[in-house]
UniProtKB/TrEMBL annotation:
UniProt key word Transferase: yes
Broad EC category: transferase
Keywords: Glycosyltransferase, Transferase
Catalytic activity: [(1->4)-alpha-D-glucosyl](n) + ADP-alpha-D-glucose = [(1->4)-alpha-D-glucosyl](n+1) + ADP + H(+)
Pfam family, any one: Glyco_transf_5
Domain Starch synthase catalytic: 5-179
Keyword Cell inner membrane: no
Protein name according to UniProt: starch synthase
Organism field: Chryseobacterium zhengzhouense
Length: 256
């Protein structure tokens, strides 16, 4: 079914990240849907490891310049864009000096999770939502990949619930076996600043607990890895949200 507007929100995508299933799967899905005649956009964080010169990223001035308030601090939102190498498929990068300049993704060189991973996820989610609105492009399908993207449906169904912009969009969440880590114990206070409270994930905030929480805010949950680990598999089996076992790329288009 071509001519759909499909938004991929992801933390990883090949070739910007290599050697992970998540990055490979998102690349294959986005390319396949693009080649079938759909209007596809991809949004991801501009982690410091992504070379702006190699991948020819450039700032989109008309989309940049917004400030997003995180924990009572104004954080400037910078939007960069590139075409997927060899393809006319646009990839948008959410950037901010404070949150995404560092070379590591979520853990420092000693393997300790960054204390501001929660703020980075909030900034990413709100940055994507605000930028899509500024683009004046309304997606039919929003497909979430990677733990940071799990904050998007939580925000859409709470903070943005009276905003009709995304009201007809269907949200798909893919689950992957990602390395888990705790989030800051005061993440609840930061979310409360945006009138978000009463989340089960706040009892034990972590990458995984927010992914599990977000299952309640989407239309479809899909296995991104064929076999899920531990709590993630348990949550998948127990969720009342419509769900699919692992799907190959061809089957994903049927789901849309």
């Amino acid at each position: 079914m071509p001519n759909q507007k499909i938004l991929y929100i992801t933390t990883e995508m090949y070739p910007y990240q290599e050697d992970t299933n998540l990055a490979a799967v998102v690349n294959k899905m986005a390319l396949k849907m693009h080649q079938e005649g759909n209007d596809v956009r991809v949004f991801m964080p501009r982690f410091g490891q992504i070379s702006e010169r190699k991948f020819q990223l450039h700032e989109v001035i008309r989309l940049s310049g917004m400030n997003i308030i995180i924990n009572d601090l104004d954080q400037p939102l910078i939007i960069k864009v590139a075409s997927l190498p060899g393809e006319r498929l646009q990839v948008y990068f959410i950037d901010n000096e404070e949150y995404f300049k560092r070379k590591q993704y979520y853990f420092d060189d000693e393997g300790v999770a960054f204390e501001d991973n929660d703020e980075r996820a909030i900034f990413f989610a709100r940055g994507v939502i605000e930028t899509i609105k500024k683009l004046n492009w309304v997606p039919d399908v929003i497909h979430l990949n990677g733990w940071m993207s799990s904050f998007v449906p939580i925000y859409l169904k709470t903070y943005y619930k009276s905003d009709s912009y995304f009201k007809d969009a269907k949200i798909v969440l893919s689950l992957y076996n990602e390395k888990d880590a705790p989030l800051a114990s005061n993440v609840g206070e930061k979310l409360k600043f945006d009138n978000i409270s009463d989340l089960n994930a706040l009892n034990n905030p972590s990458f995984e607990s927010f992914v599990i929480e977000s299952m309640n805010y989407v239309d479809e949950v899909v296995k991104g890895d064929e076999f899920l680990n531990g709590e993630l598999d348990k949550a998948f089996n127990e969720t009342s949200t419509s769900k699919s076992e692992y799907l190959d790329v061809d089957s994903i288009s049927k789901l849309y």
